[in-house]
Amino acid sequence: MRLRPCIDIHGGCVKQIVGGSIREGQAVEENFVSDRDAAYYASFYRERGLSGGHIILLDSASADPEAYEADRDQALSALAAYPGGMQIGGGITPENAAQYLDAGASHVIVTSYVFREGALDEERLDKMKRAVGTDRLVLDLSCRKLSGSQDGGDQTNTPDKPGTGCYAVVTDRWQKFTRWIITQENLLALKNHCDEFLIHAADVEGKRGGIQEELVGILGTFCRTTGFPVTYAGGVREAADLARIASLSGGRLDVTVGSALQIFGGSLDLDMLASEAASF
User: Fold this and answer.
1) What is the pLDDT of residues 67-103, one digit of tens each?
2) Smallest Cα–Cα separation from 197: which of 220, 173, 174?
3) Helix/strand/coil for 52
C-alpha cells in the first residue's frame, strides 16, 4: 500500500473541503485554507519521495473562468516544483491535456469529459486516449451511494436503472449521478483504457468520519484479483483506517489522506502515515 499525496486547489488557494459541498451559487464547506501555495506542498512531497499523488482544480472553467485560471496558475507552479511526481485533474480535455503533461504532470485525470448524460461516452474516451495515451491517463471514478431519492426507490439493479445501495460514478464536482456503477465487471472492462483509477468516496470525503468500508471492499477485491493500481480517498481519520483498508485489499489498494493530516489542519503526521502504509 502506498500513501498518495494530494493538493486540492479552489479559488486559487490550497484547501481541504467537504467534497460534496461544491455547488453553484453556494459557499463550500472548508476544513482548511492554507497560507502556503501549491508549490510548497509539491516540494514537501518531493523531499519525502511521495509520488503518484494528485493535484485537483476544484473550480469550474465554464462557471468561474477567473477562479479556474487562478487554480491553474497554482497547479502549474506545483508541477514545476515536482516534475513527473504528480497527476492533475479538473477540467482536463484532449485539447488542454498536453499542456499539463508538458508542464510536468505524470498523468492527467478525467471524469466529466468521458461521462456524459449519465453514461460512459466511448467516443470521448477514445479521443482522450489518442491525445495522451493510456499510459498517462487516470480515470477518476469518484462515486456516491445511491439512495431512493436518486433512483426512485427501485431496488432492482439494471444497467439503465441501478438500484439503491449501489455506488454510482458522479460528475460535475460530484453533483450529478451517472448510471455507471462500481462493480467488478465494470472495473475489469475499463482497466485496459487507462493506467490507474482514482476513486473518491464523495459521501465521506473531507468529513474525517471513517472510510466507506463497503466501497473499499469492492475496490480491494478488484485490486487483489487484478493487481491494477487504484487509489481510494475519503473519510480517513486515524491510522487504524489504513490497517482496515489494507485488510480489505490485501495491501493492494493505495490511499489518499487530506483533511486529517497535520499539514492540512488535522492531527495525523504525514511521515508516520506514509511509513505505516508502506508496512502493509
Assistant:
1) 999 999 999 999 999 999 999 999 999 999 999 999 9
2) 220
3) coil
Q: What is the pLDDT of residues 124-152, one digit of tens each?
A: 999 999 999 999 999 999 999 998 555 43
Tell me the residue ranges of DSSP E strands in 155-274.
167-171, 176-181, 196-200, 230-233, 254-256
In terms of Cα–Cα distance, which of 114, 85, 88 is closest to 100? 88
CA atoms of 210 and 22, how far apart (whole Å): 21
Cell numbers 456524459 correspond to 116
Cell of 20: 460534496
Hey, is 150 helix, strand or coil? helix
- Pair type for strands 53-57 and 30-33: unpaired
Query: 77 Cβ partners below 8 Å, 6+ apart?
Result: 37, 38, 39, 42
Angle, helix 239-249 to helix 213-226, in steps of 10 degrees: 50
Q: For residue 67, which amino acid is it?
A: A
DSSP code, position 14: E
Beta bridge pairs of residue 55: 7, 88
| Cβ proximity of 156 and 163 under 8 Å | yes
